Amino acid sequence: MTRRLEEAAEEIRNHSGRTRIFSHYDPDGITAAAIICKVMLGLGKPFKVTLTKKLDDKRVKEAGETPNDQLIIFADMGATRVSQLDDFPHKVIVVDHHEPEAEGENIIHVNPHFFDIDGAREASAASFAFSLASTVDERNWSLASLAIAGAIGDRQNLGGFQGYNEELVAAAAQRELISIEVMPDLKGHTIFESLTEHPEPYFVDITGRKQKASRFMKWLGLDKESEFKSLEEEQKRFLTSICAMRLLRQGATPEAILNFVTERYWLYDWDMYADELTSLFNACSRQGDQATGLAMALGDRAAREAAAAHRLKHQEWIIENLRKLEVDPPESKRHLQYFYAAESSYAGVLAGLGTLYFFDDSKATFGIHKNGGNLNVSARAPRSLVEAGVNLGVACRKAGEAVGGSGGGHDIAAGATVPSKREKKFLSELDKILKEQLTSRNSE
Fold first, then answer.
1. For 57, 205, 322, 395, which has the most beta carbons within 10 A of its beta carbon?
2. Which pTM does this prediction carry?
3. Which residue, of 279, 300, 324, is where some domain finishes?
4. What is the CATH number of the domain that holds 360?
5. 380-410: b or e for each residue (b if 16 or more CB lie within 10 Å)?
């Protein structure tokens, strides 16, 4: 791993021309891109960056038309396009954490899967981009905050960071770049604000409902201005126990309940918790303003204010639609459940939060957005199903290809794009594949 990172770092240090950067538009992709941009700025090298939803044939063609003397870096994408990128005449670096189709012969491919590190849980694109950055220059340890926020964006902190991410966090704390606090995952300045304005943790029949949240607070013996840090220890224990019991009663997954009391990471350079920084990047991404997220990561204060405004709209939209799903739950097949999302960029968010907090956790969840002649599908599964044999990346790829579409991703989170007219067949294929995956694991 060190050798591969040094090879990529040497290429970046020695390249004298412009660098073209392509990265995914989600929080992990934005932070990975920002880390690479910061490296270029530190070296005084010119660059251009594009944030995109996916590396499809159109984007590959665009990248291939880059002048041959430019270095091309793909972040949080590229692992499934190695055969095409290998044919580029350019120097190419791929920094990705998705399962690779191959290592490649003519590219420098930095991917945790090559080093027995689980890219779905133990390392994100941002955390590996950070490794590359710190290899280029030890002073780039200052970028650790962005790496942690990126890994949280891919929900790799659920149940606590593991493997490479865990080592990164411990090292950042030792360098006094962050502090680690164990506390309930209540976001917002006050407990009331957490219950009414933040979609996670999601409490059925309370979240987003001011009157019911107010009554709940009164029953707890707290007022609307109460802050968790200001409570007496007995009050903290009582609040934590009651919230955990509510999550259990509403059918939240074990990881959601266990993660209610969690490690939170205070970022000294950002003066906020890492999950709060992640939420700003996520809001920019979902609101279609990824450029603001990148600008914020690069230090633009006006962009930070704009991101905060995006977050308010983002959280309101999620809460509104989760409340609808409380009343009108997903439709079910034998091994999956699915619902229709009004916005493609939110299908995965709703599928993920619904899966964690109140959907049937014995089934994988698929959020479907109808986009003209195609369906954009986002899939999520609880860890219990993944441990039982479910691999959504494989399921989405096989079912997508079976109906003339495409798909892929991680075992726990994936997606697909398929023709609308093949929806029924696609869902049937998914159900069959999920059954085979579960049956295969059970027979071992």
1. 395
2. 0.84
3. 324
4. 3.10.310.40
5. bbbbebbeebbbbbbbbbbbbebbebbbbbb
Number of domains comprising the chain: 3
Average pLDDT taken over every residue of the chain: 95
Give me the phi and psi of 167, to 5 degrees please.
Answer: -65, -40
Distance CA 87, CA 69 (A): 15
pLDDT tens for 294-328 read 999 999 999 999 999 999 999 999 999 999 999 99
CB 412 within 8 A of CB 386: yes
Return the pLDDT at 354. 97
Q: What is residue 122's predicted lDDT score, i.e. its pLDDT?
A: 96
- Residue 254: how many CA atoms within 13 Å on its side-chain side? 4
Q: Residue 15 and residue 35: Cα distance in Å, rounded?
A: 18
Structural domain containing residue 288: 183-324
Polymer length of the chain: 444
In a domain, 91, yes or no: yes
Quote the pLDDT of residue 443: 60
My answer on whether 135 and 6 are in the same domain is yes
| pLDDT of res. 376 | 95
Pair (318, 356) in one structural domain: no
Would strands 413-419 and 406-409 be described as parallel, antiparallel, or unpaired? antiparallel
